[in-house]
């Protein structure tokens, strides 16, 4: 199973088809990495690299520009065994996610003389390190300053610079490098009037803050809130892209990549690079470890304490305002809450995680878990509240729970999740070769205007169907259906609940 997102914020309806193409391509790239023998980390890297190459996503090529008109990217990856790698405020790396993934892999290799390998590199040193590892990157700082710039991002930069300068009266305050033309020189009178009206409207909507801060901080928050409004027209105004993956063998991984908020201060680091904030992954814990002192507890309470230690595999990728997300270590907390909810439900059932009773009795839906987390963290803090969570949870399926039970969950706009399906049987490998049956759930919760997501089965059954399709095509026979990505741009109505949710569940072999 693979799931990807292209951020939570505002997604233009005019570009919806482009978002969907990019997300579907990302799913297929991740699935292809698994099919060729890659691990969960390879699949996450391949999927996010597709989104980094798109001009429609705020990562890599499509990144927002800093106040000085350049691109500085954050990215990180994490595998379920705790392996982590990140780059922060890094210019001039073609695919920041590849650098983060290579840092993660190298962190497993010991160095001589007791030295410790880094798991995060920042700034231009990250670019130099990427070059030293033969990753695609700019050869010089001047080349790095021009990398990833697009006509759309420069147009947006000039537009927001004018808004900020008008609202603060700062004129050329702070960094004043102008990449791609002088600010305001190419704006028509109609465009200037529209921007001024939008700025006045947003100023009226903004609530006064009780904290102290300079004019620059207030201007940045004003711009950040304004950029989510549909009146901007360009549409691709949202944050971090990300991915979660379930690989053969039950391994999980997660990743994020971001250009950060528009007009951010140079050197600013967002949640996409921070351990526990932007992404998190943890393997299943079977629990029930023996007492280290050799004592035995025969009471029901003692047995229950052991059973509560059994946890499912979980992975999460977060999108939102980094300064809000980092305060709550949101990705880690999401995974821990999702795992704890499943463990509690198993204990309240017949006491064996993954059994028919434990999987159903008293279980809190995964969408409720992630939505509640948003409500008690991001929505209780200062504005802006735009945030999204993409969570994958994987639990072994007991023999008594092999039927295709419903896994639907309605969203705020009427979108429904998929069904928990029976595993494919046509052309499927044997039980021993295919692995064990698991229930994989993909849940989304967001508090923005919209969030773009996609998911795709790529387990052993799906791989068998794909192989059967190729063989059937070569033989001129009708081939079994190959699973295709499911893609949505979830749009939350203005009068809807503050959090929109989506759930997809499927029975898979890993």
UniProtKB/TrEMBL annotation:
Active site (UniProt): 240
Skewed-composition ranges (Gly residues): 407-416
Gene3D superfamilies (alphabetical): (Glycosyl)asparaginase
Gene Ontology molecular functions: threonine-type endopeptidase activity
Gene Ontology BP terms: protein maturation
Low complexity: compositionally biased ranges: 173-188, 218-233, 293-309
Protein known as: Threonine aspartase isoform X1
Species in which this protein is naturally found: Micractinium conductrix
């Amino acid at each position: 199973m693979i799931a990807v997102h292209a951020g939570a914020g505002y997604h233009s309806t005019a570009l919806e088809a482009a978002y969907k193409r990019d997300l579907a391509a990302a799913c297929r790239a991740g699935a292809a990495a698994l099919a060729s023998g890659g691990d969960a980390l390879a699949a996450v890297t391949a999927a996010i690299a597709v989104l980094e190459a798109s001009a429609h996503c705020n990562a890599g090529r499509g990144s927002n520009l800093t106040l000085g008109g350049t691109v500085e990217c954050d990215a990180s990856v994490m595998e379920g065994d705790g392996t982590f790698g990140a780059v922060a405020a890094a210019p001039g790396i073609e695919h920041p996610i590849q650098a983060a993934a290579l840092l993660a892999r190298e962190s497993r290799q010991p160095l001589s003389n007791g030295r410790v390998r880094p798991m995060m590199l920042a700034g231009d040193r990250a670019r130099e390190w990427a070059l030293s590892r033969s990753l695609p990157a700019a050869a010089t700082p001047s080349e790095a300053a021009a990398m990833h710039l697009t006509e759309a991002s420069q147009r947006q930069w000039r537009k927001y610079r004018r808004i900020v300068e008008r609202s603060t009266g700062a004129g050329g305050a702070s960094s004043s490098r102008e990449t791609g033309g002088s600010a305001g020189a190419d704006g028509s009178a109609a465009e200037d009037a529209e921007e001024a009206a939008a700025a006045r409207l947003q100023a009226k909507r903004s609530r006064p803050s009780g904290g102290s801060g300079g004019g620059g901080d207030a201007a940045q928050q004003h711009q950040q809130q304004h950029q989510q409004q549909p009146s901007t027209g360009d549409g691709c105004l949202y944050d971090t892209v990300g991915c979660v993956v379930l690989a053969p063998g039950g391994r999980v991984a997660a990743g994020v990549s971001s250009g950060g908020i528009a007009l951010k201060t140079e050197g600013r680091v967002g949640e996409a690079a921070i351990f526990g904030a932007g992404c998190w992954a943890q393997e299943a814990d079977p629990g029930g470890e023996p007492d280290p002192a050799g004592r035995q507890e025969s009471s029901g309470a003692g047995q229950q304490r052991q059973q509560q230690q059994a946890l499912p595999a979980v992975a999460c990728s977060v999108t939102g305002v980094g300064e809000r997300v980092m305060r709550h270590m949101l990705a880690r907390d999401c995974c821990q809450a999702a795992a704890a909810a499943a463990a509690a439900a198993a204990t309240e059932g017949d006491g064996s995680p993954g059994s028919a009773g434990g999987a159903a009795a008293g279980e809190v839906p995964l969408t409720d878990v992630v939505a509640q987390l948003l409500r008690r963290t991001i929505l209780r803090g200062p504005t802006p509240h735009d945030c999204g969570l993409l969570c994958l949870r994987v639990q072994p399926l007991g023999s008594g729970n092999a039927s295709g039970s419903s896994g639907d969950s309605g969203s705020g706009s009427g979108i429904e999740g998929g069904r928990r399906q029976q595993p494919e049987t046509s052309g499927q490998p044997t039980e021993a070769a295919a692995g064990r049956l698991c229930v994989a759930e993909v849940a989304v919760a967001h508090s923005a205007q919209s969030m773009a997501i996609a998911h795709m089965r790529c387990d052993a059954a799906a791989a068998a169907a794909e192989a059967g399709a190729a063989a059937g095509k070569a033989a001129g026979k009708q081939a079994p259906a190959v699973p295709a990505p499911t893609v949505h741009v979830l749009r939350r109505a203005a009068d809807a609940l503050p959090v929109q949710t989506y759930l997809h569940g499927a029975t898979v072999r890993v």
